[in-house]
Amino acid sequence: MPSVTIKGSLIPFLQSQSWDFDPQRGYIHRMEFRGASQDQMLFLQQDFVKNGISCRLVYQQGDTATLEVDDSTQANLIDVWELVGNEESRDGLSHPTVLGIIPLSITEATIGQMRSDLEANETTASVYNALLAASYPADLAATLARFYSLQQRGSGEYRRQQYVLRHTTNTPNRWNSNVSDVGVDAIYTTAQLISEISNGALWVFPCPGRLQYKISNIPVPSAQAGYLWGWLKGASTETTGANNRVNICTEYSLEQWSTDYYVPY
After folding, report:
1. 47-76 as b/e, with b when 16 or more CB fall inside 10 Å?
2. What is the structure's pLDDT at 22?
């Protein structure tokens, strides 16, 4: 075989660059290097490998080599928003209608008595008369008696809808700070939530207007002392994804939260 004579530098040279953008993967910076030394190209490849960047090394004849690099670790974020409707079953005697009728000062006593009446299998009529004797107006006593009757007939629970706002940020694996780490276990009012999720400085793609409209128009139940109707921000779940990126998932759950357990934001 004839010997090969190489003239010039053995250092890998950048031959071409391109930038692709995909809504699901963000920017991908593609580079191609060519060089007359396979050892030098291997050293360059290892630098990309150490930084978690996808690359492909091709050895060719004459000690030459080509290195193809797909760098998806650019500093850009991708946002996905979901407003998830959950359904749960709740005790009928904790229904907002019941809690709205019974004065807060005697709520536990009245509901406790109704539970005792259920165990004793008291009739609906006797419960109604007892409520009248406790100075409840006739219409309110009748409403409570109907809830008692539902319990007695085995319909002790009602379905209640609950909303959860779920946000997923797809971020480069070199990214540091993220708003998901702020306000964890705090109760956001709807106005505070809208302010955070619509802030263009916090998100590449803020929460869409349709979702903001729906969030702003969810019916508000009757206020309860010691509770705040709002969105409890949970701790984020973070998982590694494709292309050397990280998915950060954060949920805000809507409920009347106890201010003894959680603090307002």
Report:
1. ebeeebbbbebeeeeebbbbbebbbbbeeb
2. 67
How far is the C-alpha of 240 from the C-alpha of 234, rounded, in Å? 19
Name the 3-class secondary structure at 98. Answer: helix
DSSP string, 109-146: HHHHHHHHHHHTT--HHHHHHHHHHTT--HHHHHHHHH
SS3 36: coil
pLDDT tens by residue, 11-31: 888 899 888 876 655 667 889
Non-local CB neighbours of 77 within 8 Å, separated by 6+ positions? 26, 169, 170, 171, 175, 203, 204
Q: What is the pLDDT of residue 33?
A: 93
Q: Of the candidates 175, 193, 172, which has an alpha carbon nearest to the alpha carbon of residue 250?
A: 193
What whole-number distance in Å separates Cα of residue 137 and Cα of residue 145?
12
At 32, is the secondary structure helix, strand, or coil? strand
Q: What are the structure tokens assigned to 129, written together?
A: 């008369």
Query: Which residues sit opposite 230 in a β-bridge?
Result: 255
Measure the CA–CA gap between 168 and 187, rounded to whole angstroms: 20
In order of 71, 105, 170, 237, the CA distances from 27 in angstroms are 8, 60, 12, 23
- In a 3-state reduction of DSSP, which class is residue 221? coil
List of the chain residues with pLDDT < 70:
1-9, 22-27, 72-77, 104-105, 107-108, 242-244
Residue 157 and residue 171: Cα distance in Å, rounded?
43
